[in-house]
Amino acid sequence: MKIKSSNPIYHLVYWLFVLAILLLVFGQKWANSVAAFYFISMLMPIVLGTSYFFNYHLVPTFLLKKRHLRFTLYTVYTIIVSLYLESIVLMYSYVFLGQYSFHPMAPNASDTVLLAVILYLLVIMGSIILMIKQIKEKQLLIEHLNKENKKVVAGVLELKANRKLLKIPYDEILYIESLSDYIQVHTRDDKVSSKEKISHIYNRLPGTFLRIHRSYIINTQKITSAGLSEISVSNHTLPVGRSYKAEVKDKVL
After folding, report:
1. Structural domains in the chain (count)
2. pTM higher than 0.85 for the full model?
3. Mean predicted confidence (pLDDT) in 50-71
C-alpha cells in the first residue's frame, strides 16, 4: 500500500480555500470589479507558490531532517522574496489598476502588513491541512500493515473443500487459478478446489502474493522467471494481464 500525498482533491480544496480568503479580505469594495479580479489573480500565484515551496520543500528537506539552521535561513529568504513579490503586485496595482491612486482600490488591498499576515496565515493553514492529511494516510497505512501482519502470523490459507475446512500453508502455494465459479489452489504436489471468488481470496492473502491476471494469483516467493507478458512459477508459465502489468513491473521486475 502506498501513501498518495499528491491527491488532486486536496490541492483543489486548498486552492479554493486560498481564493475564498483572498476574495473575502482583498476582493471587496473595489471601484472596478475587473481591477479586483486582476489583483486577486496576481496574489494567488504568490500565496500558492510560497505555500508549496514551504510545505513540500523546506519542511521535508530541512525541518523534518532536523537541519534547523538551514530551515530558518531559507524560511527567512522565502519571506523576503514573497514580500518583495507582494510589493511588486501592490506597486503594479497602484500604477495600472488605481491610476497612481489608492482610492479606486479596496482599503485592505493597500495594507502591506495585512498582505504579509494573510500570506503566512494561508501558508500555515496549508501546513495544518497537509499534516492532518498525512496523519490520516499514516493511520490507514498502519491499519494495512496490521492486517498484513495478522495474515503472516496465521501462516495458512483456510478454504472449504469437499465440505471440509482445509488449511494450506502459504509457503506451499505456487499459484491460485480462477476457473469459472470456483478456484484451484496449486501446490507443488496437489490441487485444491473451492467455491470461492478469486477477488475474495486475494484480499485474505499476505503481501507475498500478487494478482497478475484476472484468473491468476501467484506466490512471488516461488517465481523462477518473470517478464511483462508472462511469469514462471516452478514449472508453470502464466500470462500477465494487460491491466496488471504496471503492478507486476513495480513489484516483481
Report:
1. 2
2. no
3. 91
